[in-house]
Every structure is written in C-alpha cells, then in structure tokens.
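S1.2 Input.
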Amino acid sequence: MRAAFHSALTGLLCLIACPVPVVSAGESYMIGSRGAQKPVNFGAPPEVKSPWYMRVEGGYVVNSSGDIRSESPAGLTLRSYADDTDSSGIFTVGAGYRVSPGFRLEGTLDYRPLTKSKAGIEMSGSKSFWQDGPQQTVALSTGQQATVPSYDVSHFDVRRDHVVSSGRQSLMLFGYWDITRGSRVTPYVGAGIGANLLLTKSTSADAFKCAGSSNLYTHPETGQSVRTDLPVCKAQDFSEKSNRTGSAIGLAAAAAAGVGFQITPSVTLDLGYRLMWQAGETTLRWDNKDIFPSYAVTFSDRLDHEIRTGIRVAFD
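S1.3 Output.
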C-alpha cells in the first residue's frame, strides 16, 4: 500500500514539476524515438464561461499518524494511528470561484466515517452473583435441628474486548494556484485552513462465562460459613455491551497538489494528493467498579495522507 502511494505521489509531483512543451491552440509536437515520432495535438482548453463551479470528490486515507493513548492501568497501551487505525474513505462536496485564470478559491465539506482502531484492549476479571438458595437443615449441638437460609453463588470469568473508533468532519477554505500550460491538462498546488469535528466511539463487550457455583449458609451456633460446591452452574453464560461517545472541535490545515483534466467546457476531472492536519482532543473514561480497574482512552491530533479523485462542474 505504501509503495503504491509513493509511486502515485511521485508521478503526481512530476506532472507538476517536470518540464512539458507548451503548445498553443492547433499546434503539435513530436513524441517517440527517432524515426518513429508521431505528432500529438493537445489543442487549446475549452473556454469556461462562468467562474463559479461545484466539486464532488471521493478519496482514501492511505496513511495516518497521530496519537491514541490510554491512561491507567499499566500495560494498557494503544500505539499510534499509523499502526492501529484502518485506512478509511473520504467524501467531499464543495463550491469554488475562479478569481483569475491562475487562481481560485474553494470551500469544501469533508466527511470521514468512524474507523476502528486495530489495537484494542483485552482484559480479564471475575465476578460472583448471589441469589437465594434452598433452606438448609442444620444439626445443632443440642441434638435439635434448625432451618437456615442459604445462597447460591455463581462465579464468572469475565473477558472484555474493547474497541475504539474515530471519525472527523472538516469545513475548509482553500486557495488553488493553477499552473496554466495552454492545454486541457492543468497541474495545481493549494493550501487551506478551517475547522474539524472529531467524533469518537468506544465499545466494550464483556463475556461472562460461568466457572462454577456453590451453596453458602451460616451455621447458627458457630457463625462460620459453610460452602458446598454444586455439580452444575446455577447461572447461564451471558454478555453485556456498552458504548461511550465523545466529540471535540479543533483547527484544521492542509496542503494539496494535483492535476485537472478538462473534459468539456464545464467538466474537469481532478486527481490530487492532500496532506491534512486535524487538531482536537477528547477522552473517553471507563469506571469499572468491581470487575476491572478504571481507565481512559484519549484521541488527539492527527495527520493524514490522502489520495483524491473527483469532478469539478462549472455553472453555466
């Protein structure tokens, strides 16, 4: 995945930086080896009447870096986004205005869905549940018998699988510089600033497996507890699931580069790369009382490498 990403980025930057012969309308130049050259005519780009346009775009986060960390107890450590977060899709809508032939302004709204972290938390514990048992008949030292209440106690082994997810939505304003070459192919570079909304979700699934049951009662004369292990569990296995959610708003900034391919006077196919920084921090806390120690998971700033493709449609 990373090799493909670097190859695509190298090719994209070459389209922007590598020298290409500039041709005017109707002109052509020769490509190919000596003796086998063929004329290629790019032609002039179609005239765009309106400076306003809209954008629809999709993309993919090929690599991320940032921080997901846990607090207490020791040993519960979540590594970085680069190791732990699955790559995710991006969906973008926006509108722009061409200020001049070489410069345009654009506002966009990006949606990045909740994505699970590969590194979760696995914990083990135990818990006992009490319920009323049958009346027990107890022999006393006087030779008499007494009836006392008893309790059936079921002992459970508990396993917790904990998964964290995050997603970010951003509202951005970009400035783009088009490197005009007098043809339908136009490289560009750009930069943007805005705000992002961090959304987080933490899900824990606790599996309770009965490890055994026993019957307990208190002897009326000695005050001692009398325990008898039962041959079968008095309770069934079960599971519990719970969620925590959080959100935070932070600054966002980006740098972009790409190439536009003008298909018609109104439609441009866009292929680009974006380096996206998104600030914001939120913490999800778990107070586990008598089964597990309390802990927290914190999400903070994130840096994404994104490959994008879409279309720009000019208004008539």
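S1.4 Remarks. The domain at 2-16+41-122+167-208+245-314 is CATH 2.40.160.20 (Porin).
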